[in-house]
Amino acid sequence: MKTTSIQKYVFGKPIDTKAVIKDVDISENxxxxxxxxxxxxxxAISLGESDKVYGLGEAVRGINKRGWIYETYCNDxxxxxxxxxxxxxxxxxxxxxxxHTFGLFVDFPDRVTFDVGYTDINKLxxxxxxxxxxxxxxxxxxxxxxxxxxxxxIGKSYIAPFWAFGFQQSRWSYANADAVRSVIDNYRSNxxxxxxxxxDIDYMEDFKDFTINEERFPNFKKFVEEAKEKNIHLVPIxxxxxxxxxxxxxxxxxxxxxxxxxxxxxxxxIAAVWPGKVCFPDFLNNAAANWFGEKxxxxxxMGIDGFWNDMNEPAIFYSEKRLDKAIDTIxxxxxxxxxxxxxxxxxxxxxxxxxxxxxYKSIYHSIDGTQVCHDRVHNLFGTCMTKSxxxxxxxxxxxxxxxxxxxxxxxxxxxxxxxxxxxxxSWWSHIKLNLxxxxxxxxxxxxxxxxxxxxxxxxxTEDLLLRxxxxxxxxxxxxxxxxxxxRDQEFYRFSSHKEAFRSLLQLRYxxxxxxxxxxxxxxxNNELLFTPLSFEYRGDKYAESIEDQLLVGENIMIAPVxxxxxxxxxxxxxxxxxxxHFKAYDDYTLHQYSKxxxxxxxxxxxxxxxxxxxxxxPLVSPADCTANLDMSTLHFIGDVAKGQTYTLYTEGKVExxxxxxxxHVLSI
Length: 668
Ligand code: MIG
What we know:
- With 668 residues, the protein is α+β, with helices and mostly antiparallel strands.
- 25% of the residues lie in helices and 27% in strands.
- Among the domains are: 5-154, Immunoglobulin-like (Sandwich); 527-667, Immunoglobulin-like (Sandwich), CATH 2.60.40.4040.
- The relative contact order is 0.11.
């Protein structure tokens, strides 16, 4: 057995990202299997034919990242096709697993390119935009142990409040209080369990942060109370941009205190997002971050106990410069018979007005009194926004654990909040992407996570939604969310399988004690909640290449269906297991499987859970919400005859804004 070692190498003058919380002595000479260019910007590693490469958190493609080129660059791109290089989160941690197993964390707050066998199929080449970064090399004897040591380095993952393990419904376009009431009523009257309904930008006055449109949401405080009486938490969105408007308090204060990001001339940097022109609070400036964080108090005082931070890459619809350029191009081409190259130029300039990298070069932060161009620290912006809120929550409401998750992220933010996977689509391939991203996110510390169930963009169908739900019932963040203008996809909108939707939602609630307990174990022990089969069944050539099954916690395996019109799927059983075919939490059949390949029938209205040998699955009777779960109904299925114990965690009181969990060792 190899001993674990963690080496830190420092090149140039790194900007402190605060991703790592442990002190590590600085080493001098890189191990001989890592090549580095003279300018220190390119790291090269040879890959053996069967080596696997894991990590990179929020990214496209499989669990094994080989065969593509990725970039860590917080990117507001809602079209997650397999040829994209970056999504919203930037997570520069990779692990090479093979004869020689080691992890690399490139701690750098801007673009890092991970060419994982793209240019040369047998090479991993990492290119860092600047030669100012820290590199951590973690060696150990297994992928699992490398993750554990990496996670110790970056600190304990955020633990969401218990209620946030219940089902949550969202949609961008719940236009007023009555629309929200109708969602709640429909869930309750259909007997569909639910714990939260989201408020997207529609609740704000002209898309201004920390305002409420009084006409559409009159007497907001009472409305929050009314929802709470029905055991519903309302979760409002907060955007990164602050509307420029005379008399708008947040804008006026931010301007007066000089807390907004600047441009190259020292004026406030102006971009346009939802409200039209906005300024961005300088979250990298501690004073500005504290100031913005305090603003959440306005909503917390009205009873709000959960938030989602959006558009914090930051997303920019256009800047004045970029818009002028596009309009000039259009004017220049007016009435001309344009050929292909001018047509492309026109198209690119118009599309290019959003999230343009050149605009990021015009934004300046004040970090500890020094002006730093955004283009050097891009990936920290969303993280610093979210930290500003999380830190403020502890001051504002130390007796509450407030739900928080963000769209943009860098490693380190996992200590403060969760993330959701951003604007996915109602595509079958995105169920699989959802599944594959979960373990990669866990490796980088993000445990409280999930995708928009049913897909955000595009039109959802009943069968897609059912299959997606069958995966979603296992994700800590379990939220159905969709975009303005797409087909409504709340579960009650589909009538043919109402019973199945109810049963699956109830099954989630039956599983909550297990999911919560396994989540806590993963957080406390720096483990994965979603483990690739290759991590657990090492040396089993089938298990090592499985990309569409996961272990969830320590006791079960899942194998969701992600193809349309499928009546089941092939499943690889890596060891003796008991398959539980659930029609409902209390209506299931058990089948024993020995190791091998099987075609397993999984009708649209069923979920199959595979319980591992000598393990059990705890289930509780479902309730309409987490608060009404009755733990005295807890019972076990699986290998119950063998004198097992199960360690259950429940939510205790909150201290300093954090849940103190309670541990119960139950004998079965
Ligand atoms: O550009 O607030 O990812 O969840 O519904 C769209 C509207 C802005 C993007 C988020 C999405 C949210 C939407 N927002």
